[in-house]
Amino acid sequence: xxxxxxxxxxxxxxxxxxxxxxxxxxxxxxxxxxxxxxxxxxxxxxxxxxxxxxxxxxxxxxxxxxxxxxxxxxxxxxxxxxxxxxxxxxxxxxxxxxxxxxxxxxxxxxxxxxxxxxxxxxxxxxxxxxxxxxxxxxxxxxxxxxxxxxxxxxxxxxxxxxxxxxxxxxxxxxxxxxxxxxxxxxxxxxxxxxxxxxxxxxxxxxx
Length: 207
Ligand code: PRP
Ligand code: URA
Known about the structure:
By secondary structure, the chain is an alpha/beta fold. It has helices at residues 9-19, 25-43, 80-89, 136-147, 162-171, 199-204, and strands at residues 2-4, 49-55, 60-66, 69-76, 94-95, 97-102, 109-115, 122-128, 131-132, 153-160, 176-182, 185-186, 192-193.
């Protein structure tokens, strides 16, 4: 299942800020945070809840609380720009890291780092990566999580290319994708069009 935050004025506004080549790192980070808040709220819509008796100042009620453990896994580097915003929504979530970098010629990502919390019994893992281009980085990460026994994975990306979505849907039909925008296509260098350029470089001021 793919969910796109379309027809949402705030999402469209901050996407435009990300896409604008004149936007510097500071406003780029702020827009990333706001879009991540919106996406994580949407991605959490169906989380399982459990009942807990609490007392309001007036009476006792059966309150609903998120059930079990949740994990955020940012894909380094660019996913780091989404992590704090995701933790704003669910501060008790555990955090794992996967470091992947695409080869500039082949666009095939290689893994240079991985560190996971205990993944047994987690309700859901949210992969955080702002760009879903070919889908290679996301797919490698999903395979790694599934090899660790994780059954429920959601992919949270700010911009997604149709090619990347098809890649994930083909190999991992059980993984739900949440994105602020499904863009048109990839260019010859496997960059997303119209896209926003290299997310990591713009976030961290590298090139
Ligand atoms: C970018 C982006 C994704 C990946 C998406 O990372 O952050 O992880 O490309 O492309 P794909 O869907 O074709 O795999 P990059 O390799 O540029 O590394 P960085 O985050 O360190 O800049
Ligand atoms: N990674 C990015 O940062 N941007 C793209 O357009 C594709 C992959």
